[in-house]
Amino acid sequence: MIDFIQKIYKFSDPQLGSIEIMQHMDVLVYNNNFKECDLLLESVDINRLPIRMVLAFVTITQGIPDGILLNKQEFINRVRQLLIDKIGEERAKEVLGEIK
Questions:
Q1: What is the pLDDT of residue 47?
Q2: How many CB atoms lie within 10 A of CB 36?
């Protein structure tokens, strides 16, 4: 897991980084490895990633029912605050839409 996190910090292209995140998380979810998904959400430093890559984590975890990922809501709260700090509360609400 640490290797994956270090790898995504090094991506210079946010689109390619987002694809990498989505593919990695998709494999974990497909294999029911929710514990590692949860650890990634807890461990990743969202301040070191472009917003697009942070939102890749949010997007891929939205299909996972509440209660399976223990760190999902805390992660979304961190993302929400990051967005508010960077683009303001109204724009953050637009970006996150219905995500609570």
A1: 96
A2: 16
